[in-house]
Design brief:
- By secondary structure, the chain is an all-alpha fold.
- It has one domain: Rhodopsin 7-helix transmembrane proteins (Rhopdopsin 7-helix transmembrane proteins, Up-down Bundle), CATH 1.20.1070.
- It has eleven helices and three strands, in the order H-E-H-H-E-H-H-H-E-H-H-H-H-H.
- The chain has a three-stranded mixed sheet.
- The longest helix has about 35 residues.
- The chain is globular.
- It is a multi-pass membrane protein.
């Protein structure tokens, strides 16, 4: 391979959303709107939880950290994507790729653990209400949040580290709207089997553990709700659980489809629609799913609106 080819191998072109150039202005406006709503919703929720003393409880602290990670996820992807709508070359360097994937992987991994922690928190609150303040102590909450961020950082660093063993000598066009590792593997002239195996092992283990925690927690919650005598209380509980579980299902389902499917069934044309769900749609919906049905947050928002 010549020196020119080696230098080209450190830069890539993101070709996502280029099939229909006439739709670029519309797509730009749509994704810009989604990004702004996502940031206002998530960062507004974080600010609300930080400033309002009555929201300094485990459930809202976990929710605030989830909103923070959703903001991180959206910010890792969207600004570069919006820039590329009107960029001629749509170039991204290998190190920019690594940085983009690092923050995305950090946010998504932390989200997995935070969703599991939130499910466990609801299990204790509903199934063991008398023991809630003893079980969900400040120390345990801090340890859980620290563990989620630590796991996200380590998971990201593992895959970034294994990227250094690859060289890229094929087409430098990434058929995606951000720099994900799976499209990069397809461009590698070295066998990416080890990298794919690491993704399968670590992503599979993380998602299996956190999904199992979520499912078991919600099963116990449902059993407890069905034992309640009041139809009104039962209905509210089921409604809340259903909306939360829908969000969790979409998030985990898209991640499982994207990263845990066998390499033999990897289909590039399906990567973009699936990625839109877990990088853009879920961060957009989460603050509304987890807050609009929450009486405490609604009370605080009404209080602030009256003061202003």
């Amino acid at each position: 391979m010549t020196q020119d080819n080696l230098s080209l191998a450190t830069e890539f072109t993101l070709t996502g959303f280029t099939d229909h150039p006439e739709l670029k202005p519309l797509l730009f406006l749509v994704f810009l709107t989604i990004y702004l709503i996502t940031m206002v919703g998530n960062l507004g929720l974080v600010a609300l939880i930080v400033t309002e003393h009555r929201l300094h409880t485990p459930m809202y602290i976990f929710l605030g950290n989830l909103a923070l990670m959703d903001s991180c996820c959206s910010s890792a992807i969207t600004p570069k994507m919006l820039q590329n709508f009107f960029s001629k070359d749509r170039m991204i360097s290998l190190y920019e790729c690594m940085a983009q994937f690092y923050f995305l992987c950090l946010a998504e991994t932390a989200d997995c653990f935070l969703l599991a922690v939130m499910a466990y928190d609801r299990y204790v609150a509903i199934c063991k209400p008398l023991q809630y303040h003893t079980v969900m102590s400040q120390k345990l909450c801090a340890q859980m949040i620290t563990g989620a961020y630590t796991a996200g950082n380590l998971h990201s660093m593992i895959h970034i580290g294994f990227l250094f063993r690859l060289t890229f000598c094929r087409s430098h066009q990434i058929n995606h709207f951000f720099c994900d590792v799976l499209p990069l593997y397809r461009l590698s002239c070295a066998d990416p089997y080890i990298n794919e195996l690491m993704i399968f092992i670590f992503s599979g283990s993380i998602q299996t553990f956190t999904i199992t925690t979520v499912i078991i927690s919600y099963l116990f919650i449902l059993f407890t709700i069905f034992k309640m005598k009041s139809n009104k209380t039962r209905g509210k509980g089921l409604s809340t659980c259903a909306s939360h579980f829908l969000s969790v299902s979409i998030f985990y389902g898209s991640l499982l489809f994207m990263y845990i499917r066998p390499s033999s069934v990897n289909e590039e044309e399906k990567d973009i629609p699936v990625a839109i769900f877990y990088t853009l749609v879920i961060p957009l919906l989460n603050p509304f799913i987890y807050s609009l049905r929450n009486k405490e947050i609604i009370k605080v928002m009404r209080k602030i609106m009256k003061i202003s």
